[in-house]
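Q: You know discrete backbone vocabularies at least as well as I do. I have my own habits and do not want them to colour yours. No explanation is needed for now; the record alone will do.
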Amino acid sequence: PQTHAAPAAQAHPSSPAEMGGPGLYSGIGKKAKDLLYRDYQTDHKFTLTTYTANGAAITATSTKKADLILGEIQSQIKNKNITVDVKANSASNVITTITADDLAAPGLKTILSFAVPDQKSGKVVP
């Protein structure tokens, strides 16, 4: 009589190297990490605003991003229907915005804005 040997049962891989995949599991905890850290800003920001008796507002803002500290100072003056807003930042830019309500026609707002130095106008020589 002939006897047939049963095929050997295949052993299950016991290590990640035997399975052919990496041994690291970077996906574990990804959802929890995204929930805690995604869209979370680690910048430190400080803002101080004060108002004068005639209604002028002065705001100083400082932001720390990594090792960089950025600053901005802003003043806003309102007189009847005209508002003047001046901002200066740590990049030596001065941005002025003048807004006039009902200047040309009732319900029409006129806005004039300009920056100094104007990067498109050329070099500023002291």
